[in-house]
Amino acid sequence: MTTPILTKNQSLVFDVLTKAEAPLSAYTILDKLRDHGFRAPLQVYRALDKLLEYGVVHRLESINSFVACAHPDENCHSHGLVAFAICESCGQVIEFHDHEVDHRLMHWLKSHKFKAEKSTIEIRGHCASCAA
Amino acid sequence: MTTPILTKNQSLVFDVLTKAEAPLSAYTILDKLRDHGFRAPLQVYRALDKLLEYGVVHRLESINSFVACAHPDENCHSHGLVAFAICESCGQVIEFHDHEVDHRLMHWLKSHKFKAEKSTIEIRGHCASCAA
DNA sequence: TCAATTGCGTTATGCTATAACGTGTGCGAT
DNA sequence: ATCGCACACGTTATAGCATAACGCAATTGA
């Protein structure tokens, strides 16, 4: 799946996420885009839905926020599972992939005949800089 | 950590979760307990906070819901990471543990000097019964 | 040209979670 | 015994996250 040309709203939302140092909530994105004509949450959520579908943005379920994918070039769907380490001090997020973890989880799913569609792996804690 | 005697509200919430076939949202729990005098969300959230702290209930971040721990006897903190397979058809949740997954994630965290505090592993899809 | 699709804007609403206040109860230390 | 503290509880209000439902405009392809 290649990413289509983004619409105006999608580009605006994507740019905001790309420039952000940390994940942003939909409402934070909305506030940052009021100067560009955004007035309602749905404008943000609709853009986010598409960006998530294209795989260029990830949703962090545990903090109700969104981040740009750390791999601008490759297609994120090809990495297998994606995991996130989220620092609760500085807010920074490290996106990573571990094939062994993927493999073990896939093995469990297969052996239980569970058809996976979406997965969430999020670790919250403190990054190297923030840990005392 | 051993689980203290539960208060009345905590017991009521725990019982509702234990009897449920699927995870419940806080507001669903509230509705089920109106006959027992519950009137406000905080009554549920406060009980849930304690039950989570005691490790007898888990929160499913990806669906904003709560389930009773599948291991009534043991202390859930001793399992290492907990993972959940959530069926989007029937709502059923399977709680499982995989030491190899734990080990790999811990290894990544250690090598990146990331101090983990809470982790979320949730797979959404369709269980064996529901998959066509 | 017509119909279907897609994006967009707006209003309203629903769901999830917490802040802030005050009350009552049990219990240990003085 | 009573004072002070910790904790659970109840209530009202509010904050934060997400979607339903409507209609309009632009695009595309039969």
From TrEMBL, chains A, B:
The keyword Ligase is annotated on this UniProt entry: no
Keywords for the protein's UniProt record, in alphabetical order: DNA-binding, Repressor, Transcription, Transcription regulation, Zinc
InterPro entries named among the record's database cross-references: FUR, Fur_C, WH-like_DNA-bd_sf, WH_DNA-bd_sf
Signal peptide: none
Coiled-coil zones: none
Taxonomy, superkingdom: Bacteria
Protein family membership: Belongs to the Fur family.
Protein known as: Fur family transcriptional regulator
Species this chain originates from: Rhizobium mayense
